[in-house]
Amino acid sequence: MTAVWDTTLASQIRVGTPGYEHCIGRLATSDPVLIAAGAVFETAHGYESAAERRPEFAALLDEFREDVVRETICRVLPMDGLAALVAGRLLARSMPPANSKDKRSKAARRRAWLLDIQIAATCWAAGHDVATENEGDFTQIASALAKLYPDAPPLAVEGRPY
């Protein structure tokens, strides 16, 4: 089964990186890397926010737009109605994990949790697994999904594919 990339992987798609080369290789086999729409949102937000302090991030945002949003090296998996319904149910029934090492504000942690839920729901609703470097949070979401939909195929959480 194809694993859809989350933000931790999508944000690594830059010319000359292993992630970029992996995308190019998959494209050559007519099996493009899939990236969840929520990961595009989160990556664009991160680049835009960072560009205010460091101008090189504006160039990364432009590159990301060309490669990812225009789907020249990968494909964006949109969040459909089923995924939105599932995400809403998950959000109502789960809380972000407590992580004392996370230096982000409480609001930023909640926003990231919401986006992880949306990404997981998008993957699951489309019949895909999720690939991430944030396996702990996505494993927690996959467990919550299994409780909500015990008769449905589970969401598998995979690590970095390259």
Write the layout of secondary structure elements.
Layout: E1 3-5, H1 7-10, H2 18-28, E2 33-36, H3 37-51, H4 56-69, E3 74-77, H5 81-93, H6 106-125, E4 129-131, H7 135-148, E5 157-158
Parallel strand pairs: 1-4, 2-3, 4-5
Please compute the radius of gyration using only Cα atoms: 16 Å
Global geometry: globular
Termini separation comes to 16 Å
Number of domains: 1
Strand order of the largest sheet: 1-4-5
Helix content: 55-70%
CATH superfamily: 5'-nuclease
Strand content: 5-15%
Mean pLDDT: 93
Summarize the model shown.
By secondary structure, the protein is mainly α.
Give your account of this protein's structure:
With about 160 residues, this protein is mostly helical. It has one domain: 5'-nuclease (Rossmann fold, 3-Layer(aba) Sandwich). The protein has seven helices and five strands; from the N terminus they run E-H-H-E-H-H-E-H-H-E-H-E. The strands form two sheets. A three-stranded parallel β-sheet has the order 1-4-5. A two-stranded parallel sheet has the order 2-3.
